[in-house]
Sequence to fold (1402 residues):
Amino acid sequence: MDLSFTADEAAFRDECRAWLEANVPRGLPSGDTREGFARHLEWERALFDARWAVVSWPEEHGGRDASPMEWLIFEEEYYRAGGPQRVTQNGIFLLAPTVFAFGTREQQDRILPRMAAAEDLWCQGWSEPDAGSDLAGITSRAARDDGAGGWRLSGQKTWTTRGAFCTHLFGLFRSDPDAERHRGLTYFLVPLDVPGVTVRGFGRLDGDEGFAEVFFDDVFVPDADVLGEVHQGWRVAMATTSSERGLTLRSPGRFMAAAARLVDLWRERGDADDASARDDVIRAWIDAEAYRWQTFLTVTRMTDGEDLGAESSLTKVFWSELDVRLHETALQLLGTAAERDESGWMKGFQFALSGPIYAGTNEIQRNVIAERVLGLPRA
Amino acid sequence: MDLSFTADEAAFRDECRAWLEANVPRGLPSGDTREGFARHLEWERALFDARWAVVSWPEEHGGRDASPMEWLIFEEEYYRAGGPQRVTQNGIFLLAPTVFAFGTREQQDRILPRMAAAEDLWCQGWSEPDAGSDLAGITSRAARDDGAGGWRLSGQKTWTTRGAFCTHLFGLFRSDPDAERHRGLTYFLVPLDVPGVTVRGFGRLDGDEGFAEVFFDDVFVPDADVLGEVHQGWRVAMATTSSERGLTLRSPGRFMAAAARLVDLWRERGDADDASARDDVIRAWIDAEAYRWQTFLTVTRMTDGEDLGAESSLTKVFWSELDVRLHETALQLLGTAAERDESGWMKGFQFALSGPIYAGTNEIQRNVIAERVLGLPRA
Amino acid sequence: MRFAFTEDQVAFRDAVRDVLAKECTPATVRAAWAGGGSEDAWAALGAMGVLGVLAPEAAGGLGLTAVDLVLLLEESGFAALPEPLVEHGCVAIPLLDGPEPELLDGSVRVTAPFHHDTVVPYADHADWFLCFDAGAIRLVPRAAVELEPLESVDGARRLARVRAPDDAGAVVADGSAVKQAFERGAFGTAAQLVGLARRMIEMTVEYAKGRRQFGVPIGSFQAVKHHLADARIALEFARPLVYRAAWSLTRGDADASTHVSMAKSTASDAAVLAARRALQCHGAIGYSYEYDLHLFMKRTWALAAAWGDAAWHRDRVGRAIL
Amino acid sequence: MRFAFTEDQVAFRDAVRDVLAKECTPATVRAAWAGGGSEDAWAALGAMGVLGVLAPEAAGGLGLTAVDLVLLLEESGFAALPEPLVEHGCVAIPLLDGPEPELLDGSVRVTAPFHHDTVVPYADHADWFLCFDAGAIRLVPRAAVELEPLESVDGARRLARVRAPDDAGAVVADGSAVKQAFERGAFGTAAQLVGLARRMIEMTVEYAKGRRQFGVPIGSFQAVKHHLADARIALEFARPLVYRAAWSLTRGDADASTHVSMAKSTASDAAVLAARRALQCHGAIGYSYEYDLHLFMKRTWALAAAWGDAAWHRDRVGRAIL
Fold:
């Protein structure tokens, strides 16, 4: 055990901090509006140009070969400097690990650099109107077209985050109509500008057009855009889902920065008489610390080659509920002013409420913890 | 709506208060030990002699024909004066309503006065080793003995509160071996001193011998001691369970008194700096008030002839979880001294922890609320 | 002790419920976000006497009490009525010694700030503004005030900061009335929160019955059941405190402010819990702007903060009992 | 940054786990309630060097650190060891400049009070008592103290109030050592609480797999699953804070007390939650004295309060960060 950062890690942190403090843009609008998205893309491209977009990737694809620990350090510094949530995250954090694991060399070379450079913008096509928590209920179909050397997609995806602003979608389609549930699905990569694709954006809770429905009407996709084996899409996708649930999407830096802002809010607005809110502020801060150190412990285990399996469900529940509590505490400190939200906490609260829902609801995650971490019997 | 007490109600309260303040014993030991139980019986008999044991019963059986509202007033005054929990409660609050509803005139005359006078002491024989939450899993049997004009009981009951100190048991036995689950059960009244009955007391969490196992080895029970119709025991018992879950067992007076003691503890030990505990004290007090006023609302509806049905499950969850929170708050105020429990709060906390378990676990109650109050589908 | 409403009170509640079901649909609430009015609803409430429940009969009101009003306020919460019913009917009317008929019949609206503030809801459609200063309460016409629109989490509330010259409008009460006006506002808001909680629970129960995942209705999962049971329990034990506050205000009980604070804190917590559970049980659809749930959640978050939030009111209870 | 234990540390943990599984069964804990000793367990820990982990090698100790000790403390919590391991091995030993061999080999026991108090656990079997006063820490032999037994919720803890003459025993450290001694006691207790939480979760998972109601194992009900998942999550995020506190104490980190307080508050809350969920999932059997669960719950309640409860430690964190 050595809980001090190495000289290399410290130097990496210094380098991150210096660049981010000088470059993080102030006052960006929400990336979930059309105008905001465009502004965010400029920032993403600036990150890429300075090789900070995908620090953990190999240099050849635009990264720095950063270790997982360095990646955590980057994330801490990113949020500490006030960096905005990454509009490219679904590609970088959800699709890319799958491309690294299952993609052909040709796919990797074609997809990853443009993703890193924010030239191709990827959204996730998992959910359907009747397949939310129950992803295995997917009914969108892929029909074989041997003549053309590919597949024809039809059906509908929905709840696609930032789908209206993206250029590409990765998603699961039922390629074997006779197979049921998790079987017979294939993982496709689809440009959204090809014939037969219709994208309709729609509003999230906070009014931003952060969601989209994507309709597929006999959309041709060549074999080159199948990721992993045909009919094995579930297995391929679960690798992605597991990273979504685990480390990559919610690095501790975000919650440490939020807890620090909450402490600032307490200093500014806290009423010394209201020790109930004070206790909640302290709890949020401790929880963010707990999340940070649990992550260091986990990253060390991963680095040592341990397989974490279902443990990422523990993490998903913890960060998402910490995020809600932290924002609730901020609203309590704001009192009647919470309604007006000049400070952005109310909008942050609404965003936080999505945490226990997306990427597998916390009810599903708790089932997974009980069944796969604790070994309780399935229903 | 008239939320002031009538002159009659006020006079009733004054009469209760005067008698209770003069007569409630101080420093009684736990009624869940053999020695303590004997001391409690003296108190129960003093209550009966002064006609306070069963105020809501008809005068002919030892009561005062008190209205439900008067009964609530009595309970408030009882706990306000520091009266101990009633060791006769399982008879008075669980069995008696069933005897009033289903008993023959002969049974009523034979059972109720002796129960009120604490001459017969009743315990409940519901649970079995394999029938806890799932009461319909009862396997103790009642075999017909036509020659003797009665039934022969065999099997085992357990978790019988104060069973080692009681004289009689009311319980459910499977009289139709071919019927399943809720069918084919019969409700029996059994003296514990008849041949074939063995009672073994055992300790509760807090060490007191408050539980018993009761073994039945070919125990003869005459037809006169069947309550309600043969094979209809489930329906008969549910009337009792419903009162257990609802109004009678946990009158608001107990929680109002506990909240008042918590406020006293805050005044004595509370640290003005620790506003987190302060907020919890206030919450407990408000919750006790909410419970009181919800009860007044409910009693008015009952008096107007409304059927409350499954709503008693709302009450069971609320009081039992309020009781736990209230005691947790007290332990927090005690700090390191909580371990030593000179004040009785730690013992009270342990007792409170039984609330979410007995009389139908809170998990079962929440199922009932969801299915029968809200109308959600069964699993 | 008799804790029940009269048949008349229940019939009045049912009539208001029916009217609001027609005149204040989710589409009406959405229209309010876009600045649209709900004139039909307001006029109907005026015609039914709802705005003048607390006004003397001599002035054309119903001459009734907070006990008569509380169920109607609850219904207005259930409907998320985007109108200043609390500010107008609960806060302002009792301050006026013989209000003008137009204040009772639904022709005009009075709005009011809460909690020593100058921020008012439903500002753009309001005709009159209550302004509090240390010594007096003034009723100021629209023409005499300047409004600075403010964003609210609930766009239907159309918040604005009011500025009025010191001598604008007419003094309608002296400073001693401020405290009671605040109590009535907090009470009325608590009643609306109870209605909101009920609405969100009902919507979610319906959704959970119909929505299927894993081959069964999601409402058959124990986790969903328990989420909704918790919300229903919180509602069950908030409601009596709100009704009791109505009684205490009506009787001028010495502890009425403590009773109001118990009502507001408990109702705020119950409605916020209902919102949380409703959203979680809905999942992504509840998170979308096109679905109606957010209209009720956002009203809940706004009203839970308005007129003192739960912690503020609990602190006030603490000052009374500790 | 490398957050992992060495193979040696894990092997030491496993060895202690095996020994305690044999020498400190629930029956041993029950015997302690009746005043019986756990001499075999204590002697085995002495023989393995556990008592002298923090003692210098020159004095016959292992010359190791809190990082080496933390997993062993966790195991002692898992076993509910009814011995003053925290007081002896964690609090007292580092105060002594060359402890006598008998203090390391399991022949004798030192106990100590916590938090400016004079109440000590495991008093009746203790040979030496640490006594704190303003200016010094004294080590006082049994013969020189008077003990007044006190009841504890956990009978195995055998609490007593210690009275000793002002000049009794020998001064082993000056007042400046008191704070560090307290930090080590709170840290050690946090580690034990983590072990207790793990034990109660394991017991309950086993029970829920086997116990059937409604024709299925109760562990297949979603409510039971979610209760236990919550406890497992709390354990998952308490543990790293305890290990990190071990590191900070070892390094003499300037913020070590804040780290200890984060560990103790989080571990206390996690263990108390585990106890609550364990009892609820067991139902009546967990509530009976004959079943073992209560031994672990009561230790949890005692240790959650000891050395500063969760609220006390959170307040201390607050004083550092706010």
In short: Strands of chain D lie at 110-111, 119-120, 128-132, 136-141, 146-149, 160-163, 170-174, 212-213, 216-217.
